[in-house]
Amino acid sequence: MESESTRQQKVGRQLQKDIAEIIRQQGMGAYGGAMVSVTSVRMSPDLGLARVRLSIFPSDRAEAVMAAVNQHSRSIRGELGKRIAKQMRIVPELVFAVDDSLDYVEKIDELLKK
Fold first, then answer.
1. What pTM, to 2 d.p., does this model score?
2. What are the CA-CA distances from residue 103 to residues 15, 38, 94, 97 (Å)?
3. What is the pLDDT of the chain when averaged over all its residues?
4. CATH number of the CATH domain containing 32
């Protein structure tokens, strides 16, 4: 896997902040009361695609929350477009995925406690 350029990283960090703010503004009610946080955004080399990783708590609601996020993805992208219109010519396509690294850490902790 090739490493991201400095520009990709900068754009990714800015989009991470913006998307997190958009999701926060929509409120927990939009996602069935689950807490959704944006853990990372990875940009394609042409900046046309953003892979957005979401951490969802409680994790047992991840499937339902991802369905809601994908349902809202057009409005999230539209709002993102308003925020970045001055900085970028195109608004990247958003691809959402669950970041389950915290679940993995929790599982390892449980195994170590035994």
1. 0.86
2. 24, 15, 24, 14
3. 91
4. 3.30.300.20
